[in-house]
What we know:
alpha+beta; 4-stranded mixed beta sheet; 3-stranded antiparallel beta sheet
Amino acid sequence: xxNAYTSKVNVWQVASAYLHDRKGTLSTDLFNNLLGSIRxxxxxxxxxxxxxxxxxxxxxxxxxxxxxxxxxxxxxxxDSERCFKNAADRxxxxxxxxxxxxxxxxxxxxxxxRDRFAxxxxxxxxxxxxxxxxxxxxxxxxxxxxxxxSGSTSDSKRAxxxxxxxxxxxxxxxxxxVQLVNTFALHMGALxxxxxxxxxxxxxxxxxSKTYRTIAAEPQGNLPFQLxxxxxxxxxxxxxxxxxxxxxxxxxxxxxxxxxxxxxxxIDLKMASDxxxxxxxETLFPRKWVRLLHSLRxxxxxxxxxxxxxxxxxxxxxxxxxxxxxxxxxAVAKVLSDNFAVYGDDIIVDSACADSVIRVLRHLGFQANxxxxxxxxxxxxxxxxxxxxxxxVRPFFLRKVSNLTKTDVCHxxxxxxxxxxxxxxxxxxxxxxxxxxDAPLVPQDAASTAGIRIPTEIARAQGLIKVKGWVSLYKGxxxxxxxxxxxxxxxxxxMWFSLWKLESSRRDSPQVSGVVGPVSLIKVKxxxxxxxxxxxxxxxxxHLYSLATWLGLDK
Length: 555
């Protein structure tokens, strides 16, 4: 059976193969030092490789950063106790920083004559007021914006968070959200039983081999309205600033240009979501919006870190945190820089303005991550794209090496082919992995989990793409649910109305209307999946042409 198949990858074998392929890019001493660490299975050494553009040439950087990427986010090297402690310490550090920021900003709010950033903050307030507009248009648009997702909440874990399971029975919300929940329930002609809470639920999720990430599951009555704010403000950011949060391409393009001409600086912030203090929001955002945002936030937390009152305004897991921080950082960048791009805490500004932007952000409680902030030199990084003098140098992260499904193996194979070279040890390993699952060949725009990617025109020439009407199809691996669970329900009607239909359908047949229980089995099968072409930067896929030659497909 396809779904019974599992495999594993020996990360040390992969690292050794890659190092030998890249031997010519390193000094003899450095090569021997790294090879010794790999042969000794020295995981601590590999987890702490110094990856620094100022210490290495471009080719040295590519080699060392890729070796580090085999280990840095690999779940095999994550010690759960260490990861938990580091995450707990980071959470406490961020809360203390927010507490200090709250005191500082509230002091300057009372003593503006002592605030050397008063003029900049006034300009930022004006920009946010212009972009966000009045609250009333948002409230008018609410019925179409509210949505229920399959994410976990403070009351339900992910396995029991399909939308139809959330919206039956009692709805939990904070006291500030009661009016909104009741108003819209009545608007839909439904009766809602509410349970009050002041807390969201802190949980830990994987981040890298050294630490977990803390996120918070919000009360189920609050989250749909938080997501409504997210949807509304995204349209406003795109309309007024041209910031499209559905795409990261502008950030990547400016990072590429900045690595060549030095005109743009890329700024990354440490724990940005956790450093968004209450006072920063109250100081900068329009007053009516602040009242609404306050009514939908969780003022306290519970969970794996115990109970406490937040010093931050909102955490990761709150539906509007991402768009709120994007708006704040975008407003600062817009006020200080002629050109800018922002996507969450990935900020790009004119290099001449970068120091000023960092100083203002520091005053507002945010810290630049010095390891990922690049103001000068030939390297820029933003939104998962790394460029060194215009050359893409983003490494391939080996996140999982055991219990791999066939789709997991395809993802690893594509990553290894991209970082390897024709005739090298890495390509030989990748080809062995591909043969072990009889991986299909797929067009370059296919998902990395579908099969071995090759150039689209060669896939056409090989008869791997079929056209049916207006749709192009290819054969490859895909993960599909045994049944088709409801992933999202839009509108308050989905929350509070006609639930008896879902329940009656489920009783009659577990597959009627796509409604299923809380757990959906996943199977991996080989099937036709829709494909349509889109533009891709050819710099990203030049290795595919060598791969096609190596496989003997271009003859």
